[in-house]
Amino acid sequence: MTSPPVAARSWRAPGGASAGSLGRGLGWGLAASVPLVFLGVFFAWPVVSLVFQGFFADDGAGGRVLDLSGFAEVLSQQRTWRVIGQTLAQATVGTALAVLLGLPGAYVLYRCRFPGRTLVRGLVTVPFVLPTVVVGVAFRALFVPGGLLGWAGLEETFVAVVLALVFFNYAVVVRTVGGLWERLDPRAEQAARALGATPWRAFRTVTLPALGPAIASAAAVVFLFCATAFGVVLVLGGLRYGTIETEIWIRTTQFLDLRAAAVLSVLQLVVVTGALLASARARTRRERALHLTSERTSAHPLRVSFASDAVPVGVTLVVVLGLLVLPVAGLVARSFRGPDGAWSLHNYVALGTTGGRNALSVTVWEATANSLRTAAVATVLAVVVGGLVALVASRRPRSPGARRGVGVLDGLFMLPLGVSAVTVGFGFLITLDRPLGLDVDLRTSGLLVPIAQAVVAIPLVVRTMLPVLRAIDPRLREAAAVLGAAPGRVLRTVDGPIGLRSLGLAVGFAFAVSLGEFGATSFLARPDAATLPVVIFRLIGRPGAENYGMALAASVVLAALTATVMMVAERLRGDRPGGEF
Amino acid sequence: MTRSTSRRRAVATSAAVGLLATTLATLLAACAGGEEAGETGTTGSPQAQAGGAVTLVTHDSFAVSDGVLEAFEEASGYTVEQVAPGDAGTLVNQLVLTKDSPLGDVVYGVDNTFASRAIEAGVFEPYQPEDLDPSVAQYATGEYDVDGALTPIDVGDVCMNVDTGWFAESGVPEPTTLEDLTKPEYADLTVVTNPATSSPGLAFLLATIGAFGEDGWQAYWEQLRDNGLKVVDSWEDAYYVDFSGAGEGGQRPIALSYSTSPAFTVTEDGSESTTAALLDTCFRQVEYAGVLAGADNPEGAKALVDFLASPEFQGDIPGQMYMYPADETVEIPAEWQQFAPLATDPFEVPPADVAEHRDEWIEQWTATVIG
Q1: pTM exceeding the 0.90 threshold for the entire prediction
Q2: Is the ipTM here above 0.90?
Q3: The two domains B48-156+284-339 and B157-283+349-370 share their CATH topology (first three levels equal)
Q4: Which of A228, A564, A575, B300 keeps 20 to 30 A from B327, CA to CA?
Q5: Which residues of B are less than 8 Å from A28 in CB distance?
Q6: 8 A C-beta contact, residue A458 and residue A411
Q7: Residue B159's beta-bridge partner residues?
Q8: Going from the N-terminus, what domains does chain A have, and what CATH number goes with each?
Q9: Of B275, B286, B263, nearest in space to B339 by CA
Q10: pLDDT 10s digits, A137-181
Q11: CATH 1.10.760.10 fits B48-156+284-339, yes or no
Q12: Residue of B nearest to A547 (CA)
C-alpha cells in the first residue's frame, strides 16, 4: 500500500521518535496479533490443511508425496476456463450493477430525511440474510412459466443470476457507502454549487471522489460475495452457469475429488486476491482525510421537486420495489396462507411445533433462540476482532514495511468472504479435533458455530469501520498528542467517538451475517441446537404444504429479526452532540 | 513524545490484548455452557455416565420420537450425543476425510449409493447385531453386500410422482413406466433433479441404469431430454417450484420424489391423496448404521447399533423419518399401505458398481443431459 498524500505531508512531532516508534510498533503489533491468531486458527489452518491434502497424494505406503499434476489436468480442461470466465463475468457484472444501483440508494437513505427512513434502512438489509435456498425458490417461482415474471423468459439465464446477486448485495453498498456519506461535510459540495457547478458536476468532482474509499470497500465485499455465491447460482442458473465455487462444492462434497478441489481453491484465491489488490489500489489512490460531520447537519429533508433528489429517489424506488420487495412479497404472502389456501396464521402458530410429520428435532422458536444466542456471541467476537483489525489498519505508519504490513493485514481479513464455505467447513473437520492441546473436539462441541459465523462477519465489521476511521484527519491525533494527550487518550478522544458511530452499523451487520450464515454452520450443525437457517433448510427439504408454509413463515421471522436488529443498531450509533469534528 | 509514554502505551496495549483474550475465552466458555445446558435437557442426567457418552453422527434428516432415545440411555447407561454435519452424500465424504480422527462413535444414514466408498476407505469397524431378521439381512448380503461392516436400518424408494388431479382433468392417462416418460403425450411434463447435486437425482439415475443397463441408459436420457425434460438442482426446487402436485403453482405434473411423498398430500378428510408414486420407476435406498473405526467408545457404539436395529427404534421410523423400517416384522401404520406402499420390484444396481462408476456416470449424464 502506498503512502496516502496526507500522511506523507503530515506534520511530525519534534524530538527523536526512534525508541518511541519501536514501542509503538510493538504495541500495534500486539494489537494485530490477536486477530491474526484468531484468523490463523479458525480460517487459515483449516483451509490450508484441506488444500494441502489435495496436493499430497497417498504414496500407498502410508506416507504422502507432493503431487501437483492436478494443476495440469484441471487447467487443461475447457470446462475449467469456462467456469473461471463465468465466475469473473458474474461477479463483475453483479458488482457493477449493485454499486450503480446502490449509490442512489445510499444517497436517499443516508443523505435525505423523510418519515419512515429507519424502517426502510432496516428493510433493505433483509435480503442480505435470507437463506439462499428460500430466495432461490422464491426467485425461481417468479421466473418459471406461469410465474409473475414468466413472460420475461429469464429462467436459467445469466440475467436471473445477476439479479439475484444484486438482490443479496444491494444492502452492502447502500450501508457501506451511506455510512460514510452521511458523515461527509456538505459544505464542500455546497461551495461547488455556489460557484456555479451543476448538481451532477458537484457530485462528480467533489462528492464522488470523497466517497471513493467506501465505494471501493463495498465493491470489494460485493465482488467476493458474488464470486463465491453458491446456492443461488445453482438454483437459478443450474450447472450450465457453474462457477469456481459450485465446482469446488461438487468436487468436494459429491466426488471427494480433493485434488481438483485444491486446484480450484487456488484459482479462487487468485481471483479473490486480484480483486482485493485492485480494490486496495483504488482505495489508496482516493483515500485521504475527509471533513466529517454529524449526520444532523449533512442530511436534508427530501425534496422530490428537485431533479437532484428526484432521480435518486426514482431509481431507489424502482430497485427497492421491483428487485427487493417483489420476490419477498410473494414469500411473505404465501407464509400467511394455511394448508387450504385461505389467509391464516396457521404457519406461524406451527412455528411452536416440530413441523409436519416431525420434520425437525427442535421447534422453530427453540431454533430462533439458538440462533440469537450464537449470533450474539459471534457478533461480540466479530466486533472485538474486527474492531482491532480496523483500528490497526487505519494507522499509517511511517516505515514503508509497516505500512505494507497494515495493507496486508487489511486484505487478509477479507479472505474469509472469498474462500469457499465448503473448503472452510471440510477444513474444520480435518483440523479441529482437540486442537492446540485442548481436550475438546471442537468440530462436534457446538463451540465452533459462533466462531465460524464470526469469521465470516469480521470482514464486514472491518469494511464498515475502516473507511470512517481512515477518514479521520491524522492531524487531529497529532494535535491532541502535542497538546499533551497520552496515546491511550488520543485513541479514546479522537478515534473513539468517530469509530463508535460506525460501530452500530458494524454490530448490525455482524449480527445479521451471523444470523443468516449457513455455509460453514451447516457442516457443524447439531440437531439439538439447530439454528434458524438450518431449520428452514430442513423444513423446505420435506414434502407437504405444512412444512413449506412453515419454512416460509420461519424465513419471515428471520427477516423480521434481521430488520429489527439493523434498526436498533442504527439507533445505537453515537450521535451525541459534542463528538463532532 | 517521550520514551515513557510509548512504553506505557505498549504496556497498555498488551494489557488490552490480554483482556481481549480473556474476554474471548469467557465468551466461548459461556457459549459452551449454553450448549451443554441445552444438551442435558435432551440427553438425561449426568449420573447416567456409567457407560459414558456415545456420539451419533447422522445426516440432517435424522429424527426420533421423544422418549425413545432416552429409554435406550436409561437401559444402557450411555448418553447419546448427536451431530449432523450434512446431507447423506456429504456425510460419507466427511467420514472418509476424518477417518483418522472420527467425528463420533456411530454413524447412521449412510445409504447404498455411498456405502461402498466408505467401506473401501476403511471407515467402519465391522459389526452387526446377532440374529438379524432375514428381511434385514437381505439388505446386507448378495446384491447389497456390505462386508459385515454395516447394519441396514431403514429403506425407502425414490420414484416419479404424479399429480393425479392434473391427469384426471386433462384426460391423459397417468404414465406408469420409465419408457412412458419419453412418449409425446408426456412431452414437457416431467421434472427431475441433478444427480451431481441431489441424492434423489442420483438414485433416479441409478434406477435408469438398473433398467436400461450400463450401456443403454444414455440413450434413454437423450430421449427424455428431447421430450422436454426439465432438470433442476435440488429436490425442493423440483417439488415446490415445478411440480403441480405440490399446490404451489408449479406447471409440471410429473416430478421426481419419494414413494412416501403422496402421504403428505392426503386430502383433509384423509380419504385420498392428490398425488401418487409410480412404483415401476423406483430405486431403493437403504440406510445403514455402522460403528466408526477408531471410535472413542466402541462398546457404546455397538450398543447403539443394536438399539437402532431393535423393534423399539424400528417401530418409530415410519412416523419420524418417513422411511420403512428394514425389519419387516415391525408393524407399519395402516395408512401407509394406502398412500405410501413400497415398490415390489425396484431397480437395483449393486453398491460395488455404484462405488466404482458413480463419478464417471454423473459426468456422462452431465455431458448427455446438460451439455
Answers
A1: no
A2: no
A3: yes
A4: B300
A5: 13
A6: no
A7: B257
A8: 77-332 (1.10.3720.10), 344-581 (1.10.3720.10)
A9: B263
A10: 778 878 877 778 888 888 778 898 899 999 989 998 998 898 888
A11: no
A12: B264
